[in-house]
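User: I'm writing a short report section on ligand binding and want a predicted complex to refer to. Could you take this sequence and 6-O-phosphoryl inosine monophosphate and write out the structure as tokens? A short remark afterwards would be nice.
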Amino acid sequence: MVDVILGLQWGDEGKGKIVDYFAPQYDMVARFQGGPNAGHTLYVEDKKVVLHQIPSGIFHQHTVNLIGGGVVLDPVTLKRECDTVASFGIDVKKNLFISERTNIIVPTHRALDKASETSKGTDKIGSTLKGIGPAYMDKTGRNALRVGDLLDKSFTTSYIKLRLKHQRLLDNFHFNEDISSWEEEFFEALEFLRTLNVVNGEYFINNNISAGKKILAEGAQGSMLDIDFGTFPFVTSSNTISAGVCTGLGVAPQKIKEVIGVTKAYCTRVGGGPFPTELDDETGEKLRKIGSEFGATTGRPRRCGWIDLVALQYACMINGVTQVVMTKADVLDSFSELNCCTSYLVNGESKKEVPFQMSKLKIEPVYEAYKGWNTDTTALKNSEQLPSEINAYVDFINGFIGAPVKYISNGPGRDQIVKI
Ligand code: GDP
Ligand code: IMO
Ligand code: MG
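Assistant: Sure. The structure tokens for the complex follow:
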């Protein structure tokens, strides 16, 4: 049986914290897509840790962690992260497993990401520049190197062939930065990767399912960044939605039970692209300041705005969300009025659906106002203590999106979460 935790907005919903919170109830946590573009923040022994490649169950001794075949893996980031995790006394050689099918991000993927973004000028996607797009292009283009290939004698020859292909592309972009130091650390990191547990991921996970183990699939990015269903072309290059669990881990659809969607109580986005409820004013600034809305991977300020229920309902629909976790409710503690976007005005017409090519339309959000709770909620422990205004806000959201909010997260700490 597999449950899923994934983001319902444009990423950074607090998935890392929520996976870490639920991990003790599971035998395995598995990442199914994305790569080091993810930045999942957890607090371990009151220390902040940001995970990019390793699943967020790693700090629980009894939990097995799997990097699935749908992930793109940067060996350099992985090595660095393993060192961080080891400093907490966690033995990655014992509880971290990597699928043979996981695609490897090579240094020239990062260079290509940079060259491609630079060439886009004002149409930049705002990529994290971690090589994600080029690595997935090599997967669908059937050129990629995978972790299982590391054991093959021809690995270096295949790598040189791939690098040559990339070099031709880079020449077309007139990219001439020296990336030799990237390559040096890449080869060092490959040596380390060879010492880790590499498994036949789909048998590994299905054998665990057959043995009755409980598995949690951890999404990266968010549904509105999905390559097929997000705000294309301002998206990432993988399927971030629940369907990605099947292709990214080799799990059949009927094995998926709960789909737990994570949303902030408001909304953020980092990078370019449409964001109908964005607040380019002091309210947006206040959200950014109180919510410390700066990217966990790139440090960029996140764009902030009100919760967008049109987009959230869409995300619940395409994911088959069965329950919702609402994070960062405490960030709204000092707001006397809140707004929820309940429809879009597009060319004067009211729309309740996410349109095709959002990026080409002028979308005006239509809001329903809600009274704020004006109380410090960060120390609340149970649902009876929740202010009535939070309950009203949540009831309205439940009705609109067609999935129940079951948890409210009221601070970044492990124990700051209220079950409704
Ligand atoms: P992820 O990518 O979805 O894992 O989210 P990030 O880690 O990129 O961003 C979420 C940020 O919000 C992190 O700094 C978390 O520590 C923080 N966070 C998570 N949940 C809460 C919450 O309920 N309240 C507050 N104030 N911060 C939270
Ligand atoms: P987590 O898992 C927020 C955004 C980038 C950019 C677009 C494409 O921490 O929620 P890419 O590097 O994938 O080519 O970038 O997607 N993006 C994220 N935004 N959280 C993330 O991950 C993101 N991963 C990618 O900012 O707009
Ligand atoms: Mg993040």
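A remark for your report: The pocket of guanosine-5'-diphosphate (ligand 1) is lined by residues 7, 11-17, 39-41, 296, 327-328, 330-331, 409-412 (CB under 6 Å). The two ends are 24 Å apart (CA to CA).
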